[in-house]
Amino acid sequence: MEERLHRRKVGGMSFLMGGDGSPLLLLHGVPGSAYTWLSVGSRLTTRFRVIIPDLMGFGASDAPAAGDDLEDQAQAVRQLLAHLRITHLYLGGHDFGGALALTLMRLYPELTLHGLVLAASNLFADSRLPWALRMVGVPGLGHLVAWGMAGNGLGLRLIYESAVRDKEDLPWRDFRRHRAASGLRQTRRAFRRSLAQRRLRYAEMEAALPHIHCSALVIWGDEDPYYAVAVGERIRTALPDAVLKVYAFTGHFVPEERPIETAEDIILRFDQ
């Protein structure tokens, strides 16, 4: 099934693409890569033209030429869409990818959005964080904590052990595909930047939610150790036209743990 998506590279950004229909852009989280959405996207190629990039510095993409902030990643994604001549699309994001999706919409209002998927994506500055994530935002200490959590192979394995609930459906041999050296460096930087600037950035995202006037699908794991289902319910309430799907026996990496259910719910929500 995965052969339905083919890898390409444009302007330093590597991406998977395949299928027919309206464009569906899927953005991965941190840690992550295009593999986050691979199984979901492969199941959607009969309904959508699926595009799944490795964000700059992750997977097979080049390191960012300038900055590596949300705005820089959004600019790189916008350039990819321009190359593909896409201005009307469905958009999805997991974790950091959800915040990136909202940043893309804010910076480039010329894009027309038909539907939005947010998977385990916190968009609120006051959401309760696990203690380790809170430590990443502490000046002088954050660098060491970020390196210990996800800046090396052992940290990635610890994230897998703590955040993936169903290890049969998502074994370590699959999850470790995210373990590119450049991706680990970018994960460390993204953790520090997003948490250090959390209040300002997430206040902007929260304010934008009521103004997103398209069908939306919010998906969550019932055993997410980072963000409780209540965060997903809050997003669903803030969006004008959204439904929330909660998957049982599922942790934080919803698209990888529950690819069949995720693909089915996307089709049902945005049936063309």
What does this structure look like?
The chain has 272 residues and is an alpha/beta fold. It has a single domain, classed as Rossmann fold (3-Layer(aba) Sandwich), CATH 3.40.50. It has helices at residues 38-43, 70-83, 96-107, 131-136, 142-150, 153-163, 172-175, 181-196, 198-208, 229-238, 254-257, 259-269, and strands at residues 6-10, 13-18, 22-27, 48-53, 88-94, 112-119, 215-221, 242-247. It has an eight-stranded mixed sheet with strand order 1-2-4-3-5-6-7-8, sandwiched between helices. α3 links the parallel β5 (88-94) and β6. It is globular and about 40 Å long. The relative contact order is 0.16.
Question: What would the keywords be for this entry?
Answer:
272 residues; alpha/beta; Rossmann fold; eight-stranded mixed β-sheet; 12 helices; 8 strands; 19% strand; globular
Topology:
Elements: E1 6-10, E2 13-18, E3 22-27, H1 38-43, E4 48-53, H2 70-83, E5 88-94, H3 96-107, E6 112-119, H4 131-136, H5 142-150, H6 153-163, H7 172-175, H8 181-196, H9 198-208, E7 215-221, H10 229-238, E8 242-247, H11 254-257, H12 259-269
Helix pairs in contact: 2-3, 5-6, 5-8
